[in-house]
Amino acid sequence: MACISAVISVSSVNVGASASPSPSSSWWRHWHTPKLQSIITPLPSPRPTDAHPQPAAVPALRGKDYGKTKMRYPDYIETESGLQYKDLRVGSGPTPKIGETVVVDWDGYTIGYYGRIFEARNKTKGGSFEGGDKEFYKFKIGSEEVIPAFQEAVSGMALGGVRRIIVPPELGYPDNDFNKKGPRPTTFSGQRALDFVLRNQGLIDKTLLFDIELLKIVPT
Question: Which end of the chain lies in a sparser environment, N or C, as judged by fewer CB atoms within 10 Å?
């Protein structure tokens, strides 16, 4: 307030003497410094709603799968390949052998995309699996028709068991394309959710989670 009063006083005294003060005058230079101008007419502060932060583009990291450092889950068993699994229910039947066809039910989630589910087949709200064989997924043990993580997980399961697995990108879909190996989402929305994660060239985490139940083993 003192600065503003001083400016008003000085301006009033000089109005009669000179309607257009010369920039060379010492008082004119003093009162028109940026510091005092900012006090007299303060700049408006930006409101929080005015800020729209944008992520910085990092072209060198595109397509490198640097979305997240590898997580080690303490309540999971990690195999030599890097697959992590936990048995939600240990089966009481036999374990499938190479060449045998297995029938499984499965759920799939994208860990790095808000935990979005991309497949849920015949799973009721209570968590039980129901349905006929034709509605479930089948593949042959030892074949290359499924992703490595799925093959490894089911090969070590006993009939009737339910296993949850954490799948790193190197054990998942080749070339980030779920059309090359199974299991594949059966719905359009599921395909979109999975495809968004796999084909994203940014820093999104491509780790996946599957729940698998081994329903039947068909002997060769």
Answer: N
Shared domain for 160 and 89, answered yes or no, is yes
* Structural tokens at position 123: 């799973």
Backbone angles phi, psi at 35, to 5 degrees: -65, -50
DSSP element (H, E) containing 214: strand 208-218
What pTM did the predictor assign?
A: 0.64
pLDDT 10s digits, 65-78: 444 556 787 899 99
Scanning the structure block, which residue is given the tokens 């497949």?
119
Q: Is residue 14 part of a domain?
A: yes
Residues with Cβ < 8 Å from 38, sequence gap 6 or more?
none
Alpha carbon distances (Å) from 21 to 4, 12, 39, 148: 19, 12, 21, 84
Q: Are 70 and 166 within 8 A, CB to CB? A: no
